[in-house]
């Protein structure tokens, strides 16, 4: 398969979309936060000021000095305070004054009294009382009404306020629990009861291959006995893979609807929460309910949408990783191993990122079946448009086929949106029926949006892609021992792939000859060669092809000893260190050659690629009319299948390929 990566890059999809976490109203929060922070700053600031100021005016003296000053008769009055003993040199106010507000138990300075004041740190010393009695010093404990309130604030109100504040942040991050904080373990899957799912396969169009595979799943659910009697194992997990909006969720519902079984739907994002263990508990709970449902009735489907949210590979978690997600994933694996599909429980899951899934999820007995839900082709798009315009009053002049033709790369969700948009435009224009013009306008609107997301390509680019892919396909057909072309497509797929040529090996290959490796390079270079022949210029579309071709050439020289100078010499040594579970088949290689050899390798790689490119170009040049013909059909129909391709190239092709 040759996927063409456009060099543009940018984030491929914004998955999650409407299922993403709901954010709270930010306005409600800022006021709360602001006043709390403000109060905290105020309090800390004031006490700091108080502290600094106090210590400047009334420096603390040693306890022994304090006693000496009493004994010397200097201190005539002592305030016994929790924080300090304060000695005054005058006797005037025999009663304690009403103090200015006090913070942190420190008394504020008394500006009016210019008398000398001594402070010392209190010590529980009964001799002091005796000493004061002896010298006729007035002494009293200060009752601090002011500080009682502050004490209360500090010991109770602030901690509680702080706790509530933190708690609300946590609650917000945990999503919408509706205030019920004790419902951690409960799952939030929407449970649609048996037979209640109204969706049928007839509601889904343009995904015929996926439908065919899922019809079998429906059959498992309806008549499991048919399969178990013969000793067959019913699959437990089916993974729907495809770009967003292609109808994966719709298909899962249709399976439940067709089979007439209960349907439990939950999004992967719903499992993963703030607290470790919550997701795992939810998984456990979900399966418990599902098993109960399945054993009590005809069957049950558990549908986990956006599986990648929990199923991300654990191996990519460098440095710790996400405990919560891992636990959730582990629990899911345990549950999947733990039930028996004969009980009528089948797990469906959907993802648009199969590449990031943990390999453990894809092992036999888990999601070992994968169903590709691809973007619809021309015919599929027309059918989807028909389904969605069933209840819309269309003018007889509307040509849905034309609409389909101008919506290349659109997924089902986009098309449903277009029909709706067209109907709204008709209403706005005061028309009784939807006209073609409404559709054109709706498409324009949607295209503008999709272009921003890099999902729609311009007509010129489409032409380049068509010739590029045709180049791959023709070279594949003309190369001995090359895998036959199964499908050519110029329907843009996710991740920047603008088109693809799918080659299917007829048999497992364990060894490859030098010529076959060169043949692989040829096929990879066919795309760019066709571009150069037809357009006289080359594009970035071949980046991925070139990387692969270069890699093969390098391996030929370095690993397989296929260069002239280092014939039968391996230039790398297999290291002992493995890269870990993720790539058990990829031992680490160590470079074992000089810089001069490196230069030879670089030059020879360039030489091989150059030579093959020249060969490929002349092969294609000789068949330019065929190139034009196939690319023309591709531009028209968007996909060419194996049969059609074979008939197109028949007679002109190396016939040993697909014998
Ligand atoms: P996914 O789960 O693959 O992201 P959905 O199943 O949620 O996509 O599709 C969203 C909506 O788009 C569906 O509810 C349906 O109205 C429409 N849609 C998507 N694909 C199709 C299709 N193949 N046939 C008919 N309608 C579709
Ligand atoms: Zn390519
Ligand atoms: Mg979905």
Number of strands: 17
Distance between the termini: 20 Å
CATH architecture of the largest domain: Up-down Bundle
CATH class of the largest domain: Mainly Alpha
Helix and strand composition category? alpha/beta
Strand order of the largest sheet: 7-9-10-11-8-12
Main pleated-sheet profile: 6 strands, mixed
Given the structure, what is the number of helices? 21
CATH superfamily descriptor of the largest domain? Peptidase M41
CA-atom Rg in angstroms: 38 Å
Overview in brief:
This protein has helices spanning 26-57, 63-71, 126-134, 145-173, 208-222, 224-229, 248-259, 268-271, 278-296, 308-311, 323-338, 378-388, 400-405, 412-428, 436-452, 459-478, 514-535, 543-558, 595-621, 624-637, 642-649, and strands at residues 2-5, 60-61, 77-80, 85-88, 117-120, 138-141, 190-192, 237-241, 262-267, 300-305, 345-351, 369-372, 485-489, 497-503, 572-578, 587-591, 639-641.
3D architecture notes:
It contains 21 helices and 17 strands. The protein is an alpha/beta fold and 659 residues long. The chain has four domains: 36-149, Signal recognition particle alu RNA binding heterodimer, srp9/1, CATH 3.30.720; 190-372, 3-Layer(aba) Sandwich (Rossmann fold); 378-448, Orthogonal Bundle (Helicase, Ruva Protein, domain 3); 459-658, Methane Monooxygenase Hydroxylase, Chain G, domain 1. The strands form four sheets. Strands 7-9-10-11-8-12 form a six-stranded mixed sheet, with helices on both faces. β13 (485-489) and β14 form a beta hairpin. α14 (412-428) crosses α15 (436-452), α16 runs antiparallel to α17 and α16 packs across α20 (624-637). The protein is elongated and about 125 Å long. Residues 1-31, 94-113, 175-185, 576-585 and 655-659 have low confidence and may be disordered. Zinc ion binds next to β1 and α16.
């Amino acid at each position: 398969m040759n996927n063409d990566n456009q060099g543009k890059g940018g984030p491929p999809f914004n998955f999650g979309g409407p299922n993403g976490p709901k954010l709270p109203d930010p306005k409600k929060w800022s006021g709360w936060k602001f006043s709390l922070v403000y109060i905290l700053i105020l309090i800390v600031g004031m006490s700091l000021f108080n502290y600094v100021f106090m210590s400047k005016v009334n420096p603390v003296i040693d306890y022994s000095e304090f006693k000496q000053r009493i004994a010397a008769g200097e201190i005539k009055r002592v305030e016994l305070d929790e924080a300090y003993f304060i000695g005054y040199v005058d006797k005037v106010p025999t009663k304690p004054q009403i103090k200015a507000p006090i913070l942190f138990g420190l008394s504020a300075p008394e500006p009016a009294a210019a008398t000398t004041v001594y402070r010392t740190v209190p010590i529980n010393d009964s001799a002091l009382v005796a000493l004061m009695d002896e010298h006729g010093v007035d002494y009293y404990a200060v009752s601090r009404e002011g500080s009682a309130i502050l004490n209360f604030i500090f010991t109770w109100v602030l901690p509680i306020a702080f706790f509530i504040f933190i708690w609300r942040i946590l609650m917000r991050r945990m999503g919408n629990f509706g205030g019920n904080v004790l419902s951690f373990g409960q799952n939030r899957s929407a449970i649609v009861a048996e037979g209640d799912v109204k969706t049928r396969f007839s509601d889904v169009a343009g995904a015929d291959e996926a439908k065919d595979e899922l019809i079998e799943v429906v059959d498992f659910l309806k008549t499991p006995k048919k399969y178990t009697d013969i000793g067959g194992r019913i699959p437990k997990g089916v993974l729907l893979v495809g770009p967003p909006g292609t109808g994966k969720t719709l298909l899962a519902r249709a399976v439940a609807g067709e089979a007439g079984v209960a349907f439990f739907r939950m999004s992967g994002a719903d499992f993963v929460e703030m607290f470790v263990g919550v997701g795992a508990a939810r998984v456990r709970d979900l399966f418990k309910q599902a098993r109960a449902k399945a054993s009590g009735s005809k069957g049950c489907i558990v549908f986990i949408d956006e599986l990648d949210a929990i199923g991300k590979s654990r191996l990519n978690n460098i440095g710790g990783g996400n405990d919560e997600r891992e636990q959730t994933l582990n629990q899911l694996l345990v549950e999947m191993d733990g039930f028996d599909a004969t009980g009528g429980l089948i797990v469906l899951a959907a993802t648009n990122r199969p590449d990031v899934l943990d390999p453990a999820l894809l092992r036999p007995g888990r999601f070992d079946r994968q169903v590709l839900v691809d973007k619809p082709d021309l015919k599929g798009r027309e059918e989807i448009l028909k389904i969605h315009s069933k209840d819309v009053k269309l003018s007889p002049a509307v040509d849905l086929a034309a609409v389909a033709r101008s919506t290349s790369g659109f997924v089902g969700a986009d098309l449903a949106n277009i029909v709706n948009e067209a109907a709204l435009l008709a209403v706005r224009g005061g028309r009784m029926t939807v006209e073609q013009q409404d559709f054109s306008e709706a498409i324009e609107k949607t295209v503008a949006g999709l272009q921003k997301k890099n999902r729609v390509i311009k007509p010129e680019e489409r032409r380049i892609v068509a010739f590029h892919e045709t180049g791959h396909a023709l070279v594949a057909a003309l190369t001995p021992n090359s895998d036959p072309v199964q499908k050519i497509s110029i329907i843009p797929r996710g991740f920047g792939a603008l088109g693809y040529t799918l080659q299917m090996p007829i048999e497992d290959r364990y060894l490859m000859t030098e010529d076959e490796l060169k043949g692989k390079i040829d096929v990879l270079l066919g795309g760019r060669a066709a571009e150069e022949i037809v357009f006289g210029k080359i594009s970035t579309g071949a980046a991925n092809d070139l990387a692969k071709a270069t890699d093969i050439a390098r391996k030929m020289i370095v690993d397989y000893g296929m260069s002239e100078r280092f014939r039968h010499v391996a230039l790398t040594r297999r290291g002992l260190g493995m890269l870990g579970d993720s790539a058990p088949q990829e031992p680490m290689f160590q470079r074992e050659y000089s810089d001069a050899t490196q230069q030879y390798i670089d030059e020879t790689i360039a030489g091989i690629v150059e030579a093959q490119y020249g060969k490929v170009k002349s092969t294609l040049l000789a068949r330019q009319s065929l190139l034009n013909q196939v690319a023309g059909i591709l531009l028209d129909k968007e996909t060419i299948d194996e049969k059609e391709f074979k008939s197109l190239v028949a007679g002109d092709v190396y016939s040993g390929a697909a014998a």
